[in-house]
Every structure is written in C-alpha cells, then in structure tokens.
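pipeline stage [seq->struct] | target=Phosphoribosyltransferase domain-containing protein | organism=Nocardioides psychrotolerans | residues=163
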Amino acid sequence: MADEREILTYELFGTAVRELAQQVADDGFEPDLILSVARGGLGLGMGLGYALGVKNLSAVNVEFYTGIDTRLDVPIMLPPTPAAVELSGLKVLIADDVADTGKTLEIVRDFCADHVAEAREAVIYEKPWTVVHPAYVWRRTERWIDFPWSSQAPVTPASGTAG
C-alpha cells in the first residue's frame, strides 16, 4: 500500500485544468493575473489562463524539492521575481501542481500579500498535512504523485534517447 501512487495522465491533467477553472468561475473570482509557481505550476497556469480568458500570466521560481520526499529545509524564491509594482492592486490566482507541505505556496502567498488586492491559490492536488489550504483544489491525496511531465527521466543527449 505504501508504494501506491497517484497517477496523473496528460488527459486527466486537461480535465483537472477545466474543472479547476470552473471552480474559480463558479466562485465569481476574476483574476487579473495568474502567477504560476515554476516548474510544476507552469502548465496549470497556462491552462487556467486560457480557460478563464486571462492573458496576464507571470511565473515565480521556487526551489524546494530535490527528489522524491527530499527537500530543502525551507523553500527559496529564485530570481527573477515579479516586481511588486507589477502586482499592485491586482487580483492574483497562484497556480501550482500540489500543496504538499504548503511551504512553497506560503512563500509565494506571503510575497504577494503586501502588494495585491487579493490572492487565491489553485492546485491540482492537496495533501492533508499542508500548511496552506488552497481556495481551489482538484483532488486530495496522501500518495506520492506521478505527474506526466516528471515521471520519466529527462530526454538529453547523454541519456541516449534524444536524436
């Protein structure tokens, strides 16, 4: 049972994006900007942008996980970060793939807090032990998640799988 994993396929990812967008729309939240947490939240942010008709997209890069169940002591926001003046007065939807510990979302939410009119979070997955409970969640799980974009080794010339 401990080896069971949550498997997200690209097809299910498409379903998750549309269903999350519907949650946001049904809630009446109209973001001015979607701020994606790189790398895992980039695809979600793009998909939500299209589904919600939001063209103003930005990204912030936060380093936390270094492998399966291995992470830094605290998440680190890497440059470049959006300028506070660019966020001033906006309603922001923060997009990430998973709220596991919640520490990544927490650092991004805190970064936005003093500058934006309102910030809410949208994630594909939420773990029960997260310190941040996103406003919009597609699924909740305790399992390790295999995302379609990170479940296989990178394709590189050194791996012998690139042309």
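stage status: PASS
auto-comment: The chain has a mean pLDDT of 88. The chain has four helices and eight strands.
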